[in-house]
Amino acid sequence: NKSVHNRSAAAMVGMCLGHPGLVRFGLEGLHKTVNNWFLPDGHTPESPAYAQMTLNGVKDAAQVYRGYSDPPGWRDASGQRIDRYDPYHDPPFNYAAVWRANYLTMQGDLKYPPLADSYVHTKMPAMFAELMVANYPEHPEYLSLLAEIAGPELDRDIQPATAIYYREPGLEARVAEAPKLKLPDLCPPELR
Fold first, then answer.
1. Rounded distance, CA 38 to CA 158, Å?
2. Angstrom distance (rounded) from CA 120 to CA 104
3. What is the value of pTM for the model shown?
4. Residue 73: how many other CB atoms lie within 10 Å
């Protein structure tokens, strides 16, 4: 689980230095984490707490990849390049399913089932809900989740840096328009 952080750091350094090789090394790590460690339906193969630890290792890299393009004219050894990459929506990357599974797995009390290394108090951090709202505006239920976690004014238990850099200004005014939060019963198909 430490290599997830290392590759994310390499990607961010590569972006700062304009080194597409480091960017690709990090992107490969992000893809392997999301598409190979998480199950095909986005659920964790271990526990919700472990899924959160893994997402903590890739969330920053995913954010900096939004809109990334290789330097003008640059191509890799196979002649490919990256243009305006969107890790939150571009297939065959399964990142949207991972975030969706983290949402759907919660119980009605907004805590995760206590299994393996997830305890009775394991819950989604407000920062994750902020990222979901910022990157999936097509899912208004994520705003409902954020309002439940952070309060109707979106000012409780938040990380200021996440809210400042990723939250749409005036988002708290839209909380009343969000649908009522409903978490369904769930039996993750891939976990069996």
1. 26
2. 17
3. 0.92
4. 6
Q: How far apart are CA 110 and CA 91, in angstroms?
A: 29
Query: H or E element: which one contains 99?
Result: helix 95-104
Our separate counts of H helices and E strands in the chain read 7, 0
**Closest by CA position to 183, among listed 78, 87, 135, 113:** 113
CA distance 192 to 190: 5
Residues, the chain, total?
A: 192
Model confidence pLDDT, tens digit, residues 28-83: 999 999 999 999 999 999 999 999 999 999 999 999 999 999 999 999 999 999 99
Cα-based distances in Å from 91 to 34, 114, 135: 12, 32, 15
3-state secondary structure of 40: coil
Q: At what angle do helices 2-17 and 20-32 cross, to 10 degrees?
A: 150
**Distance separating alpha carbons of residues 6 and 58, to the nearest angstrom:** 10
Kindly state the tokens that stand for 155.
Answer: 């000012």
